[in-house]
Amino acid sequence: MDGWLGRMLARLLRRLRPREGWGVLLSLVAALLALAAAVDATGWLTRYLDPYTPVLLGMLVGLFFARKLRREIVAFLLAALLGAGLAVVAAALDFQGLRDLESLRLQLAAFWRIIVDSAAAGGSAPIHPRLLSAVFFFTLWLSAVWA
Could you tell me the end-to-end alpha-carbon distance of the chain, in angstroms, rounded to an integer? Predict the structure, then answer.
């Protein structure tokens, strides 16, 4: 790779190099993917959500926040709001696909009904699997962003 492509790739890798180094970043990626694999192995999320999606998206958002936002509390609040929104939409869609905005509205309303019914039950009824998957999505997301 002595040509222009090699020089361009080397320049890109130097520019994107994390302050801590590539080894730390790759170790972090491996640890977070192992966390997602452990959740995937339990089978709790696989019916409703893919556990790798929030981890990979969270890592990208976390890298962006680390480079662009200097205040940790702002980064945490933005990550929490974004993660909660993504978790609700992902659990509401339930991988049924998004046909139009009306179907999204109906699916969000149905998911909201699940949340209200679960809260009204006060722990006497089992937790709905879609609600549980949203909680796991949010937990994986926030773990990845903060890491």
Answer: 34
DSSP 92-136: HHTTS----HHHHHHHHHHHHHHHHHHHHHTTSSPPPHHHHHHHH
For residues 97-113, give the mean pLDDT: 73
Give this prediction's pTM: 0.69
- State whether residue 48 is helix, strand or coil: coil
Reference 87, options 97, 77, 79, 98; nearest CA is 79
What is the C-alpha separation between 86 and 101, in angstroms, rounded?
16
Sign of dihedral through CA atoms 20, 26, 27, 31? Answer: positive
**How many Å apart are CA 5 and CA 30, to the nearest integer?**
28
- Mean pLDDT over 135-147 rounds to 84
